[in-house]
Amino acid sequence: MLLGFANKARCLGPGFDEDGRSTPGYADRAYGQACYSDIQHLWLGRQIDEHVFPYLSGGITADGSLYGGVVEYPVLTGVLIWLGALFADTDAGFLLGSAVLMAPFGLAVAWWLGRLRGWRALLWALGPPLVLYSFHNWDLPVIACATAAVYVAARSTRPLRERATLAAVLLGLGFAFKIYPAIFVLPLALLVLSGGRDGAEAPPGVRYDVRGALRVVGAAVGTAVLVNAPFAVLGFEGWVASFEFQSRRQVDLSTNSIWYWGFRAVADTEQFQDTMSLVSPLLVIAAFVLACALGWRRMRQTGTYPWVVVSAAMLCGFLLLHKVHSPQYTLWLLPFFVLVSVRWGWIVAYLVADLAMGISVFVWLHLTTLGEGYSIYEGFTAQALMIGVWGRAALLIGLFVAFLGARSPVDDSPPEPTTSRRLDAGRLR
């Protein structure tokens, strides 16, 4: 994370204009030197520099522009943004404040992954994505929520219903940072529905624990509602604007998804945008259903519903098929490389493809502003970008299958009672 901050700090200063924007040549450096971050960029344009508390005022205009301090993220991320800017008067201070707030979450992820998988957690702690994206956007807190949910479900000695409910609360908190942890509630509920290993943790006389599964879903939904309710009550227009902004988002260069790169020639047409607003979510849902169904089939063979494995596959489907695929989303996938025992070739190939994309996309943008390098035939940068984009897409398809066929010790090893652990430790001594 220190290297990650140093990487982004190349864009800071040395001077600042009257708005606190780094000079000279902020945009040229941000893209040309590949040190761009959303954090630094959004210092201006959302009234973050004016220290306006988000959502309580403002809204969204007819053309999709946010105003009045509203940011395009769920409420806990909005509060985090406000806190990061609280003592800042420049984009450099904002990046530093945000990094200080988020670094503990990154350390917590490393700790939980280390407790779950030992040295394999170095994939998180020393992986290139942490250098590229630690402070690219506000993703470390939401990853911490998702990882903490897995840790609680795997390591708590409470009955399955209780530890799954607590994990669902953490996933509900994750929803209030970024949306994606909510998708993991479904496989977690299916784990409870199945009754755990060989159905042993289902209530007596019950084959499928429907009440327990509904309790898990209710805990996640209830947590998300409780966190969002104060903002919805105090500033409904500003609160709902963040969701409306995302629903209106167009498939364009800023989304960086296969839908843009595959259909650039028609991406600016209204018909294409309307089609993608329907096709993309339907395909994402189909991927979720397929992953959960294959997980259920595997449960019939092994006796345990592999909720972590299924969650990993669902995330691959989301990253591939959603109309937005920002570079830092790789951080979402990285913990699953630790938690699920997929072959190392998959991991190395994905990290290489992501590295090619994560650097070349910004350099390519810089070159296009200079009127050069647009075509894949015009240089290495465009070629590296296409290798990164399509290599990553192909690998996500492969990883969807690989995850579902792999094992995760987190799924396969239910927690033992605390007393048994102590007795075993005593025997070893």
TrEMBL record:
GO cellular component terms given for this protein = plasma membrane
Q: What is its main location?
A: membrane
Entry superkingdom: Bacteria
For whether the record's keyword set contains Flavoprotein, the answer is no
> Zinc among the record's keywords?
no
Keywords annotated in UniProt:
Cell membrane, Membrane, Transferase, Transmembrane, Transmembrane helix
Per the UniProt record, one Pfam family is GT87
Return the annotated region ranges for Disordered. 410-429
User: How does this protein sit in the membrane?
Assistant: Multi-pass membrane protein
Q: Where located?
A: Cell membrane
| UniProt feature, compositional bias: Basic and acidic residues | 419-429
A GO molecular-function annotation: hexosyltransferase activity
Q: Which family does it belong to?
A: Belongs to the glycosyltransferase 87 family.
Name used for this protein in its record: DUF2029 domain-containing protein
Q: Which organism is it from?
A: Allosaccharopolyspora coralli
